[in-house]
Every structure is written in structure tokens, then in C-alpha cells.
Amino acid sequence: MADIQIPDAIKPVDGRFGSGPSKVRPEGVEALSAVSRTLMGTSHRQKTVKDQVARLRRGLAEFFSMPDGYEVVLSNGGTSAFWETATFGLVREKAQFAEFGEFGAKFVKAVTDAPFLAEPTVHRAPGGQAAYLTAEAGVDVYASVHNETSTGVAVPVRRVEGADPGALLLTDATSGGGSLDVDLRETDVYYLAPQKALGSDGGIWLALMSPAAIERAFEIKATKRYIPQFLDLVTAIEQSRLEQTYNTPALATVFLAAEQLDWMNAQGGLSWAVKRSAESAAALYGWADRSSFAEPFIADPALRSAAVATIDFAEGVDAATIAKVLRANDIVDTEPYRKLGRNQLRIALYPTVDPSDVIALTSCIDYVVERL
User: Fold this and answer.
1) Total-model pTM
2) Taking 80 as the threshold, does the pLDDT of residue 2 lie above it?
3) Which of 119, 128, 314, 342 is deepest in the core (most CB within 10 A)?
């Protein structure tokens, strides 16, 4: 294995294919370096940083064609913190979940463990398949995942037909946001992370919230329910309106995400990003369909994600070894999600990744397998 040297001529120009943290554009890092003396190490309560937060919020609003009345809200802690924030600040009494992977399961656990909420209804599907929400009396929050990062299953964002009036839909777009098409009018909270399609570092959560979701947060806050200050959604909303966060954010994360959004908006926004990710997906899944030793993990083509792809390998072809050889050749982060436990590779297809590099990756895999 150590002797396999992939020729430079067939390697990707950029060998980063991680599903999160994902590839950060070198141009973004260069732009960050240019403001290292004016932004980094400065107060997040002052105009220099507030301008970057405002830039990030504007970029998201433009990219997702945010409807009137919706607001971009952000705070610290990443998606894991947002699940707890939503548990405290958006679920009035009972939630329903569509769970079909590790990330959806984490939100389910947060709500299930909350002693002040009713036992949630959970529709589950095994890895590689999708679960769906159904109308249920008494449910005030529905929650699903746009793209399941652990499995590479993607489902459309649609409101639940027949849901009780006022029921909210929360969509986990941690890894789908920015690579998959969405109409925000079909959901009340579309939340995502900066270290996926936004090509930044982690550490904050971002949410595009409808007027109904914002109203719900203030309604629950008024009930005097105990909410830890760090997880207080009303605080996050009010601080976001001031172009800041409750406590100090990662300034580099905010800047890099804003830089990425400016770049994607200049290319054509969400429609451009969706098309670019789809081009990468077509190249990878097409290769797997033609391969004698690989196949897409997701059997139903309609569920195959254009954000994160999972590729199974035949018995006798060790995906873990392939990933090690690729890593030794500076092609990194193709390993599968650890808890899935499959003989597969997982490849990010975010807009930051050039489709030509995905094609090059498939050539490299062929080259390695021939020599193993």
C-alpha cells in the first residue's frame, strides 16, 4: 500500500473532499489574511466585526431568496447547540421527527430528554432510506433533515399537509443548505452550518426563520420556561438584529462564510450552486454505476444527495485501504461516517468542490484499486 504513488497528472487540483469540515477556498483564506490586522483580534461589539456579521446575514438572505418577514439569525455552538436551542425555544409541547440517520437522531434525543416536553413521535428509516413526516393532531413542531450527512440521503423540503394551524416545520440543512434547491416558504426554520457548503470553519449556527417561528420563540420565552442564556433563541434573535452574537463568535468563521457567500452569489446564487453540485453528483454516481467494484449506497436514485455521496465497495475491495492510499497521496477526508460501519467512501459535493476534481478522484480510485 505504501508503494502506491498516484501520478500527479491524474490527481485532483485540490484533494479535499471532506463532508465537514469541508474544503475552504484558498481565495477565502487569502482574503482573511488581508484583514488579519483590522479584523482578527478585535472586539465583536464594534463596527468592524458587526459589518462582517451584517455581510454574512445579507449574503444568506440573497443566496436563499429569503421571503419577506423572514430573518437570518445566528449564534455560537454549531448545529448541536441549535438542536438544544430549538428544544428550549421552539417546541411548545410535542414534536414529530423524520429520522433517517445519525444527525436527525441527535435532535430527537434532545427533545426526548427534555423533561418539560411530551414524548415525540418519530418516523424512522434505516440508513440509505428516507422517513417522512405525517400530519398528527397536537404536534406543534415537525422536524426533518434536508440532507442526511451520515448516509447521503436527501429529501425535498415541503410543509406537512394537514398539520394543525400554527405548527412549525424545522429543516436541518446542516449539510444540504447551499447544495440543494429549497423554497424557504415551505419551512419555518432552515438551519445550517458554516463548515459545509459555506466553505468556512465551524463554531456557529445559522438559521433562516419565518415570522411564525420568531413569534413562537417570543411566545415560549414569555411563559417563563427555564432557558439557559446561551441557548436562549430570543437572545439570539435580538443580538442578530444588532449584527452581533451574545458572546464572542469565531471571527474567522464569520468572515470566511461571508466571503464564500459573496463568491457564490456572484456566480449566480443558489441556482448556480445547485447546478454545480448536481454536476459533481452526476459524475460520481455515473462512475459508480459503471464500475465493476463500486455502487451508490443509496438504492433509490431520487434519494441520492447532490451534497454528500456515499459509495459502497464490493467484498474484497477494502474502502478503508483505498482511503488510506488516497490520504497518503494528499487526497483527503474520503472516509465514511464512522457509525454507519459500511465498506464505503463518503465524498462531499459542495459548490466549493470543482466537478473536474470529482472526475479526477474517480480516476484515482480506479488507479488505486487496480494496484491493490
Assistant:
1) 0.96
2) no
3) 128
